[in-house]
Amino acid sequence: MLALKSWGIDLLQSEKKTLYSFLGLYSFLSIVILAFICLLYYNFEKDLMLQSKRPLLQKYADELIYELKQLHINFDKQRTYPRFEEFDSAIFDSSKKRIFSTMPDAEIDLNSILYVRGEHIYFIDQPESYYLGSQYVVLRIKDDGTWRQAVLGDILLYGSLAFGFMLFVGYFLLRLFLKPMNEALHLLDRFIKDTTHELNTPVNAIISNVEMIESEPLEPKLQKRIKRIDIGAKTISNLYQDLTYLTLGHRLLSQDEPVDIPALLQERLEYFQTLLEAKKLTLHVDLRPATLQIDRVKFAKLIDNLLSNAIKYNRVKGSITVSSDKHRISIADSGRGMEKAQIDRMFERFSRFDSSVGGFGIGLSIVSMIAKEYGIAIEIDSTPKKGTKVTLSW
Amino acid sequence: MVKRFFLILTLLLGFAHADVYETNCVACHKELPVSIDKYFYRYLLKYSSEGAVKEAMKRYLKAPSKENSIMPEAFISRFGVKAPTTLSDTELKRALELYWEKYKVFGKLK
C-alpha cells in the first residue's frame, strides 16, 4: 500500500478490501505456481540422481542374484544368506511374502523399481529365474543427501528470485489497475479544492455581516429572514471546512493541547444554536468536567460533524441530548435512525443514506479519520424511526 | 476320558496323513535317480510362492503330461511321465503340504 500513500490516495474501505484481495490472490497463485514448479524440479533432480545410481545398483543386484543362484543349487549343503558390505538386501516371493531380509524394519514398496525413502535408496530387481523362490530382489544403499541439499538450495535461491520478480510484476499490475481510480479521485479532489477556495471569502463575508446586524431594532419578519441567511451561510461554511479538511487538513501536523471538553461542547452548541432553533429542537445537556490532549481544531471538526448530523437527520420538534464525562461524549438524537447494514458502511467516504438532506457524505468519514488518529472509539447505537446515539470514548 | 480319546484320534489321523506323503510320494521317488527335493527346487525356481508351487504340482499330479511337467525334455524322454494320481483331493493336499513343509526355504536361511 506504499504506492497508494505515495500517490496521496485515500481509498474507500471497499476499494482497499478489493485491492488487498487482489494482492492476496495474486500472491497465493504465485506461490502455488512456484511451489508446483519447485516440486517438478525437485522430482526431476531426484530422478536424475536415481538414474545415476542405477548402474551401480544393477551391478550389486547381479552379484546378489548370482549368489542366490549358487545358494539355490547348493541349498541342501549351504543355507547362509549372502551378505554384502555395500548394501542391505531382501528377497520376496511372487505373493510378496518376505523370504529373507537383512533390513527387517524397512518398509518396501515392491511396485516401484527405484525410489528414495528416508535416508535410503531402494532398488527392486526381478531375476529371470526365481532362485529360492525370490521373484523380487530388493537392494538398499545409504543416500548421503548431498543432492537434496543442493536441490533445496537451488529451490530457495531461484524460488525467492522468481517470487520477487512476480511481486514486481504484481506491483506494476496494481499500478495499472489503480490508474483510472487514481485519476478519478484526483479529478474529484481538484474540483473540490478549486470550488472551496472560491467559496471561502464570500461565505465569511456573509457570516460576519449577519453577526454585525443588531436584531433588536428589526421587525420579526426581517429577523426571521436574516436568521435563514445565517443558517444557510453556516451550512456552507461547515461544508467548506469539511472539504478543506479532507483535501488539506489531514495531511497537516496535529497541534495537540489539553482541551476543556465541556467548554468546547458548549461553544460548538452555541455555533449550531440557529440551526437548532430553526428545527425547533429541544436540547438536553449534561456536561461533566474533563480534558483531553488533542488538536483543538480537529476535535471541534469531529464534534461539529456529529452535531450537524444529529440536527440534519432529526425530526422537527425532536430532541438532542449531549452528555460528557471524563472518558466519553455521547450525542443522541430523536431522528430517523439507521439499519445495521447502514451503520457498517456509514464511515465510508461519499456514502449517504438520505438524499433528502444536503451534504456530500464526507462528514462521518472525517469523524472516523480523526477518531482513528487519536485512538477514540466510536460506538453507534441506532434504532430505525427512534433515533441514533453516537458515543465517543477514550 | 473324552479328551484323551480325541487326542489319540488326532494323533492317529496325523500319522495317517504323514503316511500319505511317505507311502505315495517318497516310496516311488526313492527308486528314481533324481532325489525328490530337486523337483521341489525346480518348481520353486519357476513358480516362486507357496500357493503357485502347490497349484502347479497339483495340476501336474492330477493330469501329468509332457507339457505341464517341470522336468527337462531329456528327463521325460528317458523316464516318461507318471500315471495320474489316485489320491483324493484331501490326501493330495495333505501330501503337498508335507512336501512344502519339508523343503520350503522360509525360516531356513540364516
Give the N-to-C terminal Cα separation of chain A: 28 Å
Question: Which ranges of chain A are low-confidence, i.e. pLDDT below 50, for 5 or more consecutive residues?
Answer: 1-9
- The general outline of chain B is globular
**Beta-strand content estimate of chain B:** under 5%
Would you give an account of this structure?
The complex is a heterodimer of chains A (394) and B (110). Chain A is an alpha+beta fold and 394 residues long. Chain A has 2 domains: 1-143, no CATH class; 189-393, 2-Layer Sandwich (Heat Shock Protein 90). Helices cover 54% and strands 17% of the residues of chain A. Chain A has helices at 2-6, 13-73, 146-212, 220-247, 261-271, 273-278, 296-312, 340-345, 363-374, and strands at residues 88-92, 98-101, 114-117, 120-125, 136-142, 256-260, 282-287, 291-295, 319-324, 328-333, 377-383, 387-393. In chain A, β9 and β10 (328-333) form a beta hairpin. In chain A, α2 (13-73) runs antiparallel to α3 (146-212), α3 (146-212) runs antiparallel to α4 and α7 packs antiparallel against α9 (363-374). Chain B has one domain (2-103). Chain B is built from 5 helices and no strands. In chain B, α1 (2-29) packs across α5. The longest helix of chain B has 28 residues, at 2-29. Chain B is globular. The A-B interface holds A 72, 75-76, 79-81, 93-95, 97, 99-100, 129-135 and B 37, 41, 44-53, 105-106, 108-110.
Summarize the structure.
The complex is a heterodimer of chains A (394) and B (110). Chain A has 394 residues and is α+β, with helices and mostly antiparallel strands.
Feature tags:
heterodimer; A: 394 residues; alpha+beta; Heat Shock Protein 90; 2 domains; five-stranded antiparallel β-sheet; five-stranded mixed β-sheet; 54% helix; rod-shaped; B: 110 residues; mainly alpha; 5 helices
